[in-house]
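Supplementary Text 2. Reproducibility record for the structural model of the 120-residue chain.

All settings were left at their defaults, and a single model was retained for analysis rather than an ensemble. We include the record here because the model underlies the residue-level annotations in Supplementary Table 4.
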Amino acid sequence: MLSGREILKLIKKGELAVNPLDASIIRENGIDLRIGDEVAVLINNPNPLDPEKLGEVDLEEYFKVIKIEDSFVLQPYMKILVTTLEYIKMPINVGWSCRATKHVCKAWLINSSNSYRCWL
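Retained model, structure tokens:
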């Protein structure tokens, strides 16, 4: 895991890119990514989605993309993909993982002020 200081060094050297970069999202041990304005909701499709053939599939048969205006309520068992406000370009020699830092068991209320931490 990289420290905030190490993350800033990689950014300064151009080995790690975070766009747009806001200094407040660099933490002591990661980067707090902010949720963007689109959510892709998984549609119940009985056909399996083969990652090797994504170019051959109409993804609108599997996901409905929703533009977030003010808020979005994540219902129990709902599966979604979210965009982030930040674009991240990682060095090839650095591993990473993303996880939500805040959650509620029954339903989530997601708005643009919530942040997600990406551990580097």
